[in-house]
């Protein structure tokens, strides 16, 4: 047995040695060029990229095309059959003698922003440096001048700083460093930067279908999401699916004085509160009929991987400042592998200085359903709709309620659901999956966390469906990045680590 | 008995005749001067008067002072001991040989506005004419040119069009018409226009206390609120009290990605939904312990008056577009004579295009408690706080929650309550009350509705407390005026009727 191990050990060691020398070279190059690297990144962050803002999306895409051209990458904008939607940015590097082709994916669009919700002095698209996270009392500091040391614990705040311009930037920086070092990648590289991920990747399927040949590869590596909360790098083999719904309940046709009609006229905020309450018990378990049906159980390999995921529950509770989690005692890693129902937000009339003594006309909740393998997005939506009906509601999709409807039904809800998409999981024991694990492991001295599925979502099922190609996600952002919310940020060390991860993956 | 009735009948008839001749003269004057009257009113509406906007409040007060000076009324701004709060505008007209003094009250400040919630083309402080109410498909029409007939069913849209610049305007127009007609009022008249009513009249007590002598009178007549929903004029002898609260529940310190943490991290919107749900049953009955205690029952006279109030429940349900009222079958007039708990609005993160897939950090509800005779504002607030505690919450008044608190209590709510004020009721059988009823009745051919208490609130207890003077409310606005909300409006005929009512009251 010992003899059998020896050559294998040597082989790994060789790879390890080669890689760590590679990583060291990349690190040295980065250290000598940090200001230039961050300068390009700050430029990218300064361009508004809200997924629904066509002009900002076009400007962001143009900036990335320029970044790629500066690196000698031939680019092309890929469209589906639907016009006027954000294009994907494609680029290709053919490597002589390479036998495998890998597509590196990130997305350049960002979630909507409400600038009023951001901290003072921090604007979504005028990114700034802070000397620590806001939660740890971080303060805004001037951008480091040339020659000034850059503390890797500093953070950059701005929309998409982590989700997912950091992905675009780290992939392109990894490639640039290899080129500048004169090191040829070991695989053919394709770049694919999506522009509509935050709107649910509505037209991604069209783009994949339209450009099947061009996008042919052995694997898609997805750069999105955070590293493990323990701070360790992670390789993720799947994602939850996701579908958004909006539920709006109606009361009077016009807002009423809460004195003259309070106690008598129905209050839509109270109606919605009761409707939402009926959906989950006090432990956070969803009470909607059949909500947990259809779930495909984990394989043995996946179960073993999950058992090895370091527990971060207590650390996270302390960090996030609460002691009572949902789930009745189940762990975070268990719970993010179940379907979920989350209230993204709700609204009815006004609060604070704008509040007035009225009975509002309607109340609205934005819901987010996460799906696991086996769930179907529209089937899950339908379960929620059925639940709303069993609570006595007449459900319509129309925004304007007719007088006939108002005088026929005691309770009226408008429910609109997006298309959404299902969960996806790549088998952890595929040979190419093992190569990815080795490459990422070679770029760090800590044990890499192997995660069968992320709690978050990406439309990865599309790559299987339209291209029959597996996907593996290799995230880089700090876990406390406020992704999707106000005060989004990235820790600078995470950018540096991310670049090294992707250098290793391009040379795996 | 017949003989006894005869002189009384003759007397009433005489008053009626004198008054209707008065009303007729006033009406004719108004008809000849409608454009000029409305011109002055539109000018008043064009000045922002949000109670928290000091500059707007000062400009509004200056305009009203000018209106009064144009009518030959000597004015004075009355302050309490607190500086930089909206002053009350005072004016006085001494009538030779008059034995009674009446203070005519209205308020010139308005509720906050969220212009985005107003209908297209209608701005809170650029008031416009519509040819009908929005709910009945009304369209914006050009302001009537001189000589053009003004349809009394047209409406004017703008903040405070009804609440309560219409009050200020109608009182001053009634006085102006009497003067122009050369008719002397039968009572000494004092004008008192408050500037802080919509902020809960926080400093009114100081003003009353500071100017006790100046404000001496036999009666305050309050011009605020709507006529009865049946369209009939009403005389109102009391009001509910009112106190506002804000409840904010907290979860994570920072917003979380709903995929990576959904199902595990507590969701404040769901927590608040459950907390609010626990406050009322499905019939709208408040479940908070002791909520309905302390209520002083109606006198026999009041009960009789209530029995005579025309039922408008079905009419109002049809008009407002709902079939299921709160209250489990009790009538509107019964229910507005009970204490109430209304959600004025709630908010957590975002909905609609701004919604993002996050677990919000907090959720806030604005509550409005209406009080009836016997309730005490702070005692009622305390009952709500106790209820929140019994739901497992740690309750604090502080906006920022410390880490120690976060890691000690599973559920945390910040509750802030305003001072509020209690209900008030004037006895309907006072001789001066009977005079008011007669005067209002003389200005209309329909039977006047006598209402022991309005569902709405005004700080009328203060007049009893500081001046030992009764108050009677004589409202003029159309009931469907969207008071306090977006698209506030007044029907022009209600202005005309209101002026006639106040002409009669000044000559009662």
UniProtKB/TrEMBL annotation, chains A, B:
Pfam families: M20_dimer (PF07687), Peptidase_M20 (PF01546)
GO-annotated molecular function: succinyl-diaminopimelate desuccinylase activity
Keyword Protease: yes
InterPro entries, per database record: Cyt/Met_Dipeptidase, Peptidase_M20, Peptidase_M20_dimer
Classification via Gene3D superfamilies: 3.30.70.360, Zn peptidases
Residue ranges annotated for the Peptidase M20 dimerisation domain, each copy included: 245-391
Range of residues in the leader sequence: 1-18
Keywords from the named record: Hydrolase, Metal-binding, Protease, Signal
Entry keyword annotation includes tRNA-binding: no
Enzyme Commission (EC) number: 3.5.1.18
Superkingdom of origin: Bacteria
Main enzyme class: hydrolase
Cross-referenced PANTHER family: BETA-ALA-HIS DIPEPTIDASE, DI- AND TRIPEPTIDASE DUG2-RELATED
Protein name in the entry: Succinyl-diaminopimelate desuccinylase
């Amino acid at each position: 047995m010992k003899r059998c191990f020896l050559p294998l050990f040597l082989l790994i060691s060789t790879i390890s040695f080669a890689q760590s020398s590679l990583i060291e070279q990349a690190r040295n190059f980065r250290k000598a060029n940090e200001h230039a690297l961050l300068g390009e990144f700050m430029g990218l962050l300064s361009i508004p990229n809200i997924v629904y803002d066509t002009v900002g999306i076009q400007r962001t895409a143009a900036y990335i095309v320029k970044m790629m051209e500066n690196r000698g990458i031939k680019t092309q904008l890929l469209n589906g059959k639907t016009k006027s939607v954000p294009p994907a940015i494609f680029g290709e590097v053919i490597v002589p003698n390479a036998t495998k082709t890998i597509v590196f994916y990130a997305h350049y669009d960002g979630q909507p922003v409400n600038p009023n919700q951001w901290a003072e002095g921090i604007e979504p698209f005028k990114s700034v440096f802070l000397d620590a996270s806001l939660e740890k009392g971080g303060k805004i500091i001037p951008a480091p001048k040339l020659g000034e040391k850059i503390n890797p614990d500093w953070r950059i705040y701005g929309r998409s700083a982590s989700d997912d311009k950091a992905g675009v930037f780290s992939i392109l920086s990894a490639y640039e460093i290899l080129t500048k070092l004169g090191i040829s990648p070991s695989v053919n590289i394709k770049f694919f930067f999506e522009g509509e991920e935050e709107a649910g990747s509505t037209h991604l399927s069209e783009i994949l279908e339209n450009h099947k040949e061009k996008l042919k590869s052995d694997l898609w590596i997805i750069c999105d999401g955070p590293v493990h909360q323990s701070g360790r790098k992670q390789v993720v083999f799947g994602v939850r699916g996701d579908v958004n719904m909006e539920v709006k309940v109606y009361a009077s046709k016009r807002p009423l004085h809460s004195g003259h009609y309070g106690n008598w006229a129905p209050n839509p905020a109270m109606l919605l509160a009761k409707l939402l309450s009926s959906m989950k018990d006090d432990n956070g378990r969803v009470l909607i009929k059949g909500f947990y049906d259809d779930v495909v159980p984990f394989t043995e390999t996946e179960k073993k991987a999950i058992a090895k995921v370091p527990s971060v529950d207590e650390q996270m509770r302390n960090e996030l400042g609460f002691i009572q989690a949902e789930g009745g005692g189940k762990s975070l890693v268990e719970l993010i592998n179940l379907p979920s129902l989350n209230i993204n937000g709700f609204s009815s009339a006004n609060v604070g200085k704008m509040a007035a003594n009225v009975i509002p006309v309607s109340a609205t909740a934005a819901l987010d359903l996460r799906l696991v393998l086996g769930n179907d997005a529209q089937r899950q939506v339908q379960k929620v709709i059925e639940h709303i009906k069993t609570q006595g509601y007449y459900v319509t999709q129309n925004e304007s309620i007719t007088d006939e409807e108002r005088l026929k039904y005691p309770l009226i809800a408008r429910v609109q659901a997006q298309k959404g998409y299902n969960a996806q999981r790549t088998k952890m024991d595929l040979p190419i999956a093992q190569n990815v694990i080795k490459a990422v492991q070679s770029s760090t001295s800590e044990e890499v966390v192997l995660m069968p599925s992320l709690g978050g979502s990406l439309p990865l099922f599309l790559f299987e469906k339209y291209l029959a190609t597996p996907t593996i996600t290799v995230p880089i952002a700090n876990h406390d990045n406020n992704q999707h919310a106000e005060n989004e940020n990235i820790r600078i060390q995470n950018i540096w680590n991310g670049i090294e991860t992707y250098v290793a993956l391009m040379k795996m």
